[in-house]
Write a structure and sequence with these properties.
The longest helix has about 55 residues. Helices cover about 50% and strands about 20% of the residues. Helix 3 crosses helix 11. About 25% of the residues are buried. The protein is α+β, with helices and mostly antiparallel strands. Among the domains are: about 100 residues, 3-Layer(aba) Sandwich (D-Maltodextrin-Binding Protein, domain 2), CATH 3.40.190.10; about 100 residues, PAS domain (Beta-Lactamase), CATH 3.30.450.20; about 80 residues, Helix Hairpins (Orthogonal Bundle); about 150 residues, Histidine kinase-like ATPase, C-terminal domain (Heat Shock Protein 90), CATH 3.30.565.
Length: about 675
């Protein structure tokens, strides 16, 4: 079905290609022309055609029957103002009005007003036209012609005022502008609330600023600059660099004068085509302010774009015609290859092992779903990356080339490693048709749980045996130790024995008895420990009490103790078991720092568990010893300095609490023991 649809599309393109090309080119031509007209005359093609037409009979009849009156403010130089010397009403806008009069062959009467009065008279129909910025609010009262030019509005303030940088900074300030100016509507629309103190014209507003009665004046740029340059103390004022706004200037027409609007649109279009408005701007401003810079480069770019598109279409037509049969063949072969690849991928995804394929550069080209789930990334993120990017997640493979060489030589290879878990890796070759090694297939088996289960079983068996042994040993040697202790007492009192021999004997016997007593007490406490009552504790206070008990161990060792307990609420725990655990682990950390260091205890909780980390900066534990530290009677201390039961007892007590213990250690850098067990809050 899909193939037939594609064939129909090819036939259509072949038979109607030239028509399609011409239509597309024509549409592109219209877009280029429309953009040109919009940039140059501020209207689309339809508006260009309408305004290019001569005045209709209806429009000429209207001109014969009606008088046109232009009215605006009388003190906004150089836009419009009454010259105090000559009394003449003149300016940029008046010159444009004169140009319109000349183009139409009529006389337009002009009347100067105060700004707000001119707006009122336009609305009432006493005048017919007034130049202004268009807006939604003004659009409810007036009709708008096509634009004549663009004009900026600016802000001016005293040089001492450094707070105003944009119109947002006007919030809550005293601001002035001629009453009725568009700036009032603009700031209101932007949500800027100011305290308006308006004058009848811009000159009044500027005087208010110089008298420090307002903080800022806003208005049309040419008008503001005119008064700044000519007023006394104008040099004490500064222009804010950021414009207030930039908008098109139009003629506002009375709502009833729709015909006049059409007449003015056509006339404005004609005088813009002749360049009259640009000349007027140059006269008053010294420059011509156009809507957009528009140079011959645009026409060149437009031609290049049209030509390029035409060439593209021709090439596309030839390509479609020439490659039609080739595409069908490629599609057929691609489908076969896809089906084969999809079958293989389905098989890979169905396996529980982590599987990935890498090329000779170590770049991953394929993975199965199990691998994606393990690394917690998307398939797109993994494919294209290097095998070594995942060394920290799976296996420490830093020399990929050695694996490649091994497989190339031996046919396959196999190795095991431990990296936050236990893994078995088998690497198989993927050869090309010439039996040359093309890629490697890594099959990674996670055997962490299997190994862990085996170790736990062995540990449990050892612990059960040791528990039985401890009870028997304790009972067997208690009485002999009591006798030794008694004889020690008698030796101390025996007359006739030399002091040196007596002291040496007593010291040896006492040392042996003390060591045997520690072993006995540890074994008996562990073997016959009764479950103490569960009670409420404040963990930070509890840890403090444990540390006080260990003060004698830290004496003279210059050990800094840091406790960071982030568990604020009271916990319901077996205090006896927790006490035994912490005493043994903290004591172990202290003994690991004979030359001093830092002992840090960190506690935190989540929704279910409490965790306690005990870190030291001591001698650390070697890799060969770390697997044996929880065995009874295993110790790395000198003979006579430790019983080898502390961590064993802690391990068993943590198990009774339903928790786990883990350790991270580096020789000469220190160790960190982490205890995790469930808790109940009060």
């Amino acid at each position: 079905m899909k193939n037939k649809k594609t064939q129909k599309i090819f036939v259509f393109l072949t038979n109607y290609s030239m028509t399609i090309i011409l239509v597309v080119l024509f549409c592109l031509f219209l877009l280029v022309v429309n953009d040109h007209v919009r940039k140059k005359y501020s209207m689309d093609i339809i508006g260009y055609i309408e305004n290019s037409m001569p005045l209709s009979n209806e429009e000429r009849s209207w001109l014969e029957k009606n008088k046109i009156i232009f009215g605006a403010d009388n003190n906004s130089p150089p836009l419009r103002y009454v010259d105090p010397k000559t009394g003449k009403y003149q300016g940029t806008t008046l010159d444009i009005v004169d140009a319109i009069s000349e183009e139409l062959g009529i006389t337009i009467e002009v009347k100067p007003y105060v700004f707000k009065d001119a707006m009122i008279n336009l609305e009432n129909g006493n005048i017919n036209m007034f130049d202004m910025f268009p807006s939604d609010q003004r659009g409810k009262k007036y009709l708008f012609t096509t634009p004549m030019y663009r004009l900026c509005a600016i802000m001016i303030t005293n040089k001492s005022n450094i707070e105003i940088k944009s119109y947002n900074d006007l919030e809550g300030l005293k601001v002035s502008t001629p009453e009725g100016d568009y700036a009032e509507e603009f700031l209101s629309q932007e949500g800027i609330n100011v305290y308006w103190i308006n004058g009848n014209n811009m000159e009044d507003s500027m005087k208010l600023l110089l008298d420090n009665k307002v903080d800022c004046v806003v208005g049309d740029e040419p008008v503001v600059m005119y008064f700044k340059d000519r007023m006394d103390k104008g040099n004490e004022l500064k222009i804010i660099n950021t414009p207030l706004y930039e908008k098109e200037v139009v003629f506002g027409v009375n709502k009833k004068d729709e015909t006049l609007k059409r007449i003015l649109n056509k006339t404005i279009f004609q005088i813009r085509k002749k360049g009259t408005i640009q000349k007027i701007q140059q006269k008053w401003f010294g420059i011509s302010i156009s809507f957009d810079s528009y140079t011959s480069i645009w026409n060149f770019l437009a031609i290049v774009m049209v030509t390029s598109f035409f060439i593209f279409l021709v090439l596309y037509y030839l390509m479609v015609f020439w490659n039609r049969n080739l595409n069908r063949e490629v599609k057929s072969r691609t489908e076969e290859l896809y089906n084969s690849k999809n079958d293989l991928q389905t098989i890979l995804d169905g396996l529980a092992y982590f599987m990935m394929v890498a090329d000779s550069n170590g770049i991953i080209t394929n993975v199965n779903i199990s691998f994606i789930h393990f690394v917690k990334l998307s398939k797109d993120q993994v494919i294209g990356s290097n095998v070594t990017d995942y060394c920290h997640l799976i296996f420490p493979l830093k020399n990929f080339r050695s694996i490649w060489d091994s497989v190339e030589k031996e046919g396959k290879t196999k190795f095991e490693f431990t990296n936050e878990g236990s893994f078995e890796v088998e690497v198989f070759p993927i050869n090309n048709i010439k039996n040359e090694l093309l890629k490697l297939l890594f099959v990674i088996k996670d055997v962490t749980e299997v190994n862990l289960a085996q170790r736990k079983l062995m540990q449990a068996e050892k612990m059960a045996y040791v528990g039985q042994m401890a009870a028997g040993v304790a009972h067997e040697i208690r009485n002999p130790l009591g006798v030794i202790k008694s004889y020690t007492y008698l030796l101390k009192k025996q007359p006739g024995m030399t002091g040196e021999i007596q002291e040496k004997s007593i010291k040896a016997i006492d040392s042996s008895v003390e060591r045997a007593t520690r072993i006995i007490n540890s074994l008996l406490n562990f073997s016959h420990m009764e479950d103490e009552e569960v009670g409420s504790i404040k963990l930070d206070k509890f840890i403090g009490e444990i540390l006080e008990l260990q003060t004698h161990l830290m004496k003279g060792k210059n050990i800094d103790v840091v406790v960071d307990c982030r568990v604020e609420e009271e916990l319901t725990l077996n205090k006896g078991r927790l006490k035994h655990i912490l005493i043994n682990i903290i004591a172990n950390a202290i003994f690991a720092m004979p030359d001093g260091g830092e002992l840090k205890i960190f506690c935190q909780k989540d929704m279910k568990n409490i965790s306690i980390c005990v870190s030291d900066t001591g001698v650390g534990i070697s890799k060969k010893d770390i697997e044996h530290i929880y065995y009874p009677f295993f110790t790395t201390r000198k003979v006579g300095e430790g019983t080898g039961l502390g961590l064993y007892i802690a391990y068993k007590e943590i198990q009774k609490l339903g928790g786990e213990i883990s350790v991270e250690s580096e020789e000469l850098r220190g160790s960190t023991f982490k205890i995790v067990f469930p808790y109940h809050s009060e």
